[in-house]
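Notes from hallway chat w/ T.B., transcribed later so I don't forget. T.B. wanted the structure written out for a chain they're using in a teaching module, and asked if we could keep both sequence and structure tokens in one place. Agreed to drop them here.
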Amino acid sequence: MKIEDMTGLEVLQAMALGELPRASITITIPMTFVKIEAGSVLFHAFADDSHLNPMGGVHGGFAATVLDSVTGCAVHTMLNAGVGYGTIDLNIKMIRPVPKNEKLIAEGKVINLSKSLGISEGTLKSLNGKLLATATATCMIIK
């Protein structure tokens, strides 16, 4: 099956199974799929020494990228074959510093999907459940 004939859910599931190449951002910002369902995704993410700001902490862009990914992928799971999306608004709240060299849990869920917009929310947490950052996103649906 060609990628343009696959639903968003099928594309992401094929990536998770290694049947399609992963998005290259998952190498720059280490992220792996854990769960993919219609309307929601769960990733593991990992910040290391390559993600630090000048003060030695994990750069806020790490959390922003992970949250953009899970909110966008959640919307992607709801799209028909041949339909794409693009983030047009991403609102992030940084709650705690992101630890380095620890596996993190990122989750995205669709709040609403219309013909032209997908709205989703995301969280980034430590393995022990501490909330590190949250986000809401608005994605334009591209036909």
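Follow-up for T.B.: The chain has a mean pLDDT of 96. Might be a good example for the class.
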